[in-house]
Amino acid sequence: MSDGTYCDRCGRPLAAAGGGQGHEACRAARELEPPRYCTRCGRRMVVQVTPDGWSSRCTRHGLTVSPAPR
Ligand SMILES: [Zn+2]
Ligand SMILES: [Zn+2]
Questions:
Q1: Which one-letter DSSP state was computed for residue 3?
Q2: What percent of the chain has pLDDT over 70?
Q3: What angle do CA 3, 22, 56 make, to 5 degrees?
């Protein structure tokens, strides 16, 4: 589902040399937590929790908001 280059929870490259291990836990945690790192540049984002969910802002790539609840 994520089309970014970096993990949005730990900020490491998804396709790291050696297999990109360990992001399954990140993905599971992301069901409960807002993203902390930009998927496009790996920078730490400013996270705000809102009544509707969350918003995360990258200084380079702007705002990402939580997907609409299903
Ligand atoms: Zn990760
Ligand atoms: Zn970014």
A1: -
A2: 84
A3: 45
CA of 29 to the centre of ligand 1 (A): 9
Bridge partners for 6 per DSSP: 13
Alpha-carbon span 55 to 13, nearest angstrom: 22
Which residues are 59's β-sheet partners?
Answer: none
Write out the two tokens for 58: 């990258």
Neighbours of 60 (CB within 10 A): 10
Please give the distance, rounded to the nearest whole angstrom, from the Cα atom of residue 45 to the centre of ligand 2. 8
Question: Cα 3 to chain center, whole Å?
Answer: 11
Quote the pTM value.
0.80
The closest ligand to the CA of 11 turns out to be 1
For residue 64, the CA-to-ligand 2 centroid distance in Å is 10
